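Worked example

This section walks through a single chain of length 289. The input is the sequence exactly as stored; nothing has been trimmed or padded.
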Amino acid sequence: MSTLSKPLRSQLEERYQINYGEIKLDKTAEDSTRKYLIGFNTKQEPGAVVETVLIPESRRATLCVSSQIGCSLRCSFCHTGTQKLLRSLTAAEVVGQYMISAHGAGDFPLRPEKKRSVSNMVFMGQGEPLYNWRHVSKAVKILTDPQGLSWPKSKITISTSGVVPLIPKVATDLGVSLAISLHATNNDLRDKLVPLNKTFPLEVVLDSCKQYAYAMGRSGKRITFEYVMLDRVNDSLAEARELVRLLKQLPAHVNLIPFNPWPGSSYRTSAPTQVEKFAQVISSRPAVS
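Given that input, the structure is written out below as tokens.
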């Protein structure tokens, strides 16, 4: 910037830096899914990394970003839950995950005439986003600011395991989409799968979703309910019918997720035929998709 004096430029260079994080791994799978391991090294957490994943589809590409290094929720089916929570990411570190992925996808520098390769963003990586509300909300505001990265709010989704007090604020403060890690249709099972349910039980989570939907008004956005399919744990047709009943008063979309086995886990993936039958029960009810 030639309008700044040389001494000032030297001071800026000495005191500040643009650092998105250090790419520790950049790996593309056979299905074109691209996984980054990004290091945000500090003296307190040397070698700590987060995972950021770019998932291409036929008409879009979704970036899955992390909000914390590790996780405190201990969901029994989730491998990240076995990792100790080191700390929450800063807003800069959250945005940095997008910047690294945008550079890798050829989206940066931004050009208005060019369609973005990274079209959607979900806070579904490591950590519970609503337990890092201060920095996640700041990151979303930077991403969606017309003078910032100008992301459409409709293309950003925050996923939570059910931090009830902050769910309505996803609508009132940010106006972005919401996803709920549900995974069970009763409190006894959800207590085991998602221990946060002991603090915020199922009925309270669903009530907060109604508050979110009311605050979003006529936006037409459905709440996504994530449901990992676990063989003979939560995949019966009776549970599919109960899921429809629970969600019938909400603008709901159900995302059935195949369980991804990991070493030491006692769970197994539901059979494809059972997943299909489960999905048919859900799709046969017009109120839920």
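What to look for: The helical segments are 6-15, 91-105, 133-144, 167-174, 187-193, 202-216, 237-247, 272-283.
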